[in-house]
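re: the backbone from monday

yeah here it is again, tokenized this time
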């Protein structure tokens, strides 16, 4: 209304007041999320400010004492440009945002402007400019942790980053932990999960940082990356107990719970997160996980973010689309092993063995020789009869490093099944189950026990597997097949009756047919699909 009055009667408002009105109007539009309209009004405000500056140069003083304080209270031109850049980022017009901020002289850039520029440069792949901007933020604000993390994510050495904060660390009491914090996250960004976990654990044990939710969340994420799902869940639960309104990382927590078969807990978690905020991705991802592991793939595709979308696409048979999403995920998170696992699984599903082998070797070289990368490479080697021995060597190395790593145990069991070394497989699985309980391991143990005619214990293993995951179809099929099978005693009694009633030759022929059927059944049992 005031702007209309201003246009109709220019005498009622001074040029500086008109500038203020335009900025106030643009701010209101910004908060109402009308970003394009806000940009338009901010542009008009800057034009008004430019005209105002020219007027003040022509008439440096009007003799009005009240004009001086008013001019000092005018919204900053730099702040207006920052708001315009925010609008452009919300509209996903990053180039325009960079252009606006680049137009601000370096000496006039505030820390938040340099921070926004650094993030935009990083997103655009302009790493050198991003590093320069992050360093400028640290020069002005040595305790800006986001700038520290930004530099570490761009492969700047931890020692170099720490040197930029050393003066302030030494000058402030009880801040010595910050250098250890920088060291920990330097390990995180180089993919050294083991050393990162150890360093953060040492920080978390210190009285000053004990029960810190952010550190617990980082630990949980690192355990997840390292494939230690049990400890990851434990740390997420600790963080959640300390902060019931925690959202960050809860998507990964929900995913892990779903993999454990705890679908009721996943559903409850999703409801709780939606009650906290439906404006974040996490509650949608958790609900997508629940649908995905309940085998409602279309709903998972609708609900989930990219993490669930690529998995759902794969399970719906849309492998090529899933490959595109996995590649994008790897670009965004190059240290996330699950992204590589998904991509390699898609390659194998489409019989692209060569591409899978190249990717597995790249992961092995990039992330190092740990239990997860060794198992991933072995998984691809198992697809080619020529590389079976290499797969065996890789799996043995993985299990030497982590005897409880479930994926390695499963793949080694698959290899032993192919070689029909059922006793060795049973020993391997019993050893793996000594300190943990897992649905898949119990089910495979049941399969191996069937192979050695231990039917009763096999039935027990299928029952345990179903108690851990009632939706496990393979365990259910195994149990149903066991129930249909005749016991060896019954079979012997029937053969005796046949021998008494019929000729001996017919009995021999029937016995050979029965034996052939039994072997055929066993081949179906241990196909390890």
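seq for it, each position gets an aa:
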């Amino acid at each position: 209304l005031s702007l209309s009055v201003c246009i109709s009667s220019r005498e009622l408002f001074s040029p500086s007041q008109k500038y203020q009105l335009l900025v106030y109007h643009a701010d209101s539009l910004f908060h109402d999320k009308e970003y394009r309209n806000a940009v338009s009004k901010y542009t008009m405000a800057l034009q008004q400010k430019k005209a105002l500056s020219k007027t003040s140069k022509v008439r440096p003083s009007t003799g009005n004492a009240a004009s001086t304080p008013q001019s000092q209270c005018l919204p900053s031109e730099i702040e207006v440009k920052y708001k315009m850049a925010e609008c452009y980022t919300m509209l996903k017009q990053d180039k325009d945002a960079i252009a606006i901020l680049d137009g601000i002289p370096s000496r006039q850039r505030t820390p938040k402007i340099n921070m926004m520029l650094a993030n935009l440069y990083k997103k655009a792949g302009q790493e050198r400019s991003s590093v320069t901007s992050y360093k400028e933020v640290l020069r002005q604000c040595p305790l800006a942790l986001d700038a520290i993390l930004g530099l570490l994510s761009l492969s700047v050495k931890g020692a170099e980053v720490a040197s930029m904060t050393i003066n302030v660390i030494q000058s402030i009491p009880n801040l010595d932990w910050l250098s250890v914090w920088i060291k920990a996250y330097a390990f995180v960004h180089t993919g050294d999960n083991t050393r990162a976990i150890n360093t953060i654990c040492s920080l978390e044990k210190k009285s000053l940082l004990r029960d810190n939710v952010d550190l617990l969340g980082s630990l949980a994420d690192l355990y997840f990356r390292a494939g230690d799902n049990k400890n990851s869940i434990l740390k997420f639960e600790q963080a959640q107990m300390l902060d019931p309104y925690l959202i960050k990382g809860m998507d990964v927590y929900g995913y892990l719970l779903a993999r454990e078969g705890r679908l009721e807990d996943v559903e409850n978690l999703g409801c709780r997160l939606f009650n906290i905020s439906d404006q974040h991705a996490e509650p949608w991802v958790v609900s997508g996980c629940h649908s995905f592991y309940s085998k409602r793939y279309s709903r998972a595709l609708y609900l989930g973010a990219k993490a669930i979308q690529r998995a759902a696409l794969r399970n719906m048979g849309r492998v090529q689309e899933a490959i595109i999403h996995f590649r994008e995920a790897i670009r965004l998170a190059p240290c996330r092993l699950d992204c590589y696992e998904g991509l390699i699984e898609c390659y194998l599903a489409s019989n692209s063995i060569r591409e899978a082998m190249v990717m597995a070797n790249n992961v092995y070289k990039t992330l190092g020789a740990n239990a997860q990368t060794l198992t991933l490479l072995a998984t691809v080697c198992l697809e080619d009869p020529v590389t079976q021995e290499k797969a065996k060597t890789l799996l043995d190395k993985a299990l030497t490093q982590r005897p409880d790593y479930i994926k390695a145990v499963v793949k080694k069991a698959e290899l032993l099944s192919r070689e029909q070394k059922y006793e060795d497989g049973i020993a391997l699985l019993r050893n793996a189950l000594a300190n943990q309980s897992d649905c898949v391991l119990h089910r495979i143990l049941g399969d191996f026990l069937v192979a050695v005619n231990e039917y009763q214990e096999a039935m027990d293993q299928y029952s345990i597997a179903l108690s851990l995951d009632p939706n496990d179809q393979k365990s259910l099929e195994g149990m149903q097949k066991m129930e249909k099978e005749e016991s060896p005693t019954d079979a012997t009694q029937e053969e005796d009756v046949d021998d008494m009633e019929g000729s001996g030759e017919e009995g021999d022929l029937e016995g050979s047919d029965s034996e052939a059927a039994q072997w055929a059944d066993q081949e179906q049992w241990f196909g390890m699909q």
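The radius of gyration is 32 Å. The longest helix spans residues 35-58.
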